[in-house]
Amino acid sequence: MGTDLHELLRSLRVWDPEVTELPAFDPDSAPGEPLPLFTQWFAAAVAAGQPEPHTMSLATADAEGLPDVRIVMLHGADADGWSFATHATSRKGRQLAARPYAALSFYWPVLGRQVRLRGPVAVAGAEESQADLHARSTGALAAALTGRQSEVLDSVEALEEASRAAWDRASREPGAPAPTWTLYRLAPEEAEFFQGDAGRRHVRLQYRRRRTGRGWTRRLLWP
Question: Which among 36, 92, 41, 42 is positioned nearest to 68, based on CA atoms?
Fold first, then answer.
């Protein structure tokens, strides 16, 4: 007997108090720019035991303006932006080359928090991109060396063969280059911090970069 999706959905809870704590958030006490608040919230998610808090949704658009989204890993966040990496020849790499603008979304359900960012995306240089790759694990290097991301796969055996060769090279040459591996940085023009509330009076604090490029304005949004 098959699973009834609608019944399954109705059986689920959002922010079950057994696994979720909804902390208070006073937007008046928030810092004047988004990066310090993101750092605080990220550290709180880690401390609360949120699985994989560094994963995020990356939304891009194709040449026709149609949206695309996938999960990627945060590589860092600083004054230059929020960074992630992929092959320049991948689907998202090609989309970013055509339309260098994107959105990021983090969701940390153990605290009922979301962070949303959107803005232009810049490409780091080859030397910095390779340094980012080589600071990661052997598995990350092997995956990068396997390459051909987003291309059509003819057979599982072809992937297994390419992966074995990539793992062997990554183990022997930890500094092996992956020329198409590219580090990207999203410099947010908007950043929203969402704190869930059990009474559905959610707090949404939005930062918007001033047109001069210096400083931020802040405003609250209706939930």
Answer: 92
> Dihedral angle at the C-alpha atoms of 129, 131, 133, 136, nearest 10 degrees?
-150
Statement: residue 200 has pLDDT above 90: yes
User: What type of residue sits at position 15?
Assistant: W
What whole-number distance in Å separates Cα of residue 208 and Cα of residue 38? 15
Q: Is the pLDDT of residue 68 over 70?
A: yes
Handedness of CA 201, 191, 82, 122 (dihedral sign): positive
Cα–Cα distance between 116 and 107 in angstroms, integer? 9
If you search the block for the tokens 């072809």, which residue do you land on? 158
Between CA 137 and CA 161 the distance in angstroms is 20
Q: What are phi and psi of 43, to 5 degrees?
A: -60, -40
Helix and strand counts by DSSP (H, E) for the chain: 6, 10
Determine what percent of the chain is predicted with pLDDT higher than 90. Answer: 94
